[in-house]
Each structure stands twice: as structure tokens, then as C-alpha cells.
Amino acid sequence: MVIVIVIGAGPGGDIAAIRAEQLGMNVACVDAWKTKEGKPTQDGTCNNIGCIPSKALLQSSKNLDQAKHHFGALGIMSTGELRMDVAVMLERKNQVVKSSNEGKLYLFRKNKVQFLNGLAFMTRAAVGLELDGRGAVVVNGEWRTSVPSIWAIADVVRGLMLAHMAEEEGVAVVE
After folding, report:
1. Does the reported pTM lie above 0.90?
2. Is CATH 3.40.50.720 the right assignment for the domain spanning 3-174?
């Protein structure tokens, strides 16, 4: 049985881990994130402090703008002033992040991916990875590194750091 260790459970890592398990590999995924309460979680910057919370807050702001400036044309009127309740917006954002994290952990359990909360280090000296002048892992067009059994995607390589690209890369390196 092929044993795969995925370092990082962000948009690329979680997809890679799940797909590898679906293809019959024995997979562990390591990520160091913890919630504000200290509970182990995954999904990195995107889900915890980046993309997902930002979009939740933007949705609240956009809805306020729509209500203030466009609802009247739809026949929806307000008798009072519309305003933001920042505490409620932040609590909703926290619930969106929590729900997303719980959903990812459910997918890990459902697909039998072992989730390990902690740090995983792969230094150039320890494994022989080639790094460029800015510290990014050097890969070829198939995300292969200078070490035959190690592939690298997403934030550790050069290129655009976009969640949807990391997801596609995660599937590609496994298949």
C-alpha cells in the first residue's frame, strides 16, 4: 500500500489527501492550525483568517449596501436607519469558519484520511529539496521536486496563490 503524507490541509492539501485516499493510498494530513480556543483544526490561512472569513464579512457589508441603496426599488421599505452590528457580523463570520472547518474534518473522516495537528518540517538539508533564491521549492511542470518522491504545490512554490488553483494542483499531483 502506498503511504502518503500531505503537509498542509489548505485548499490544495485537503483535496490531495482526500483524492489519494479515494485512489487506495494510506494518507495522513498534517496541519498546525488551532482555533482560538486551542482546538486542532485544518484548512490553513484560506479558511481560518483569509478567504472564507473575508467573504463572510463582505457578504454582510454587501447586504447592508443592497438594503440601503437598492431595496426601495423593489418595494422593500425601512422605517428605521439600517446599520451594522459589528459584533453580530463577527460572530456570523466565526460560525461560517467553524462550519467550514467541521465540514472538512467530516470529509477527512468519511474518506479515512488521518488528520494530525502539528508541524511538519522538510528542510533543504534534511531531504535535499532545491529552493530558488526567494526560498520557494523548485518544481517542474508536473510539480515534481528535486527529490523523486516529493511533489510540491500551492504556497510553497512560485506562481499565483489562489485557492481554486491549489485544489486543481492537489488532484493533479495525486492522479
Report:
1. no
2. no
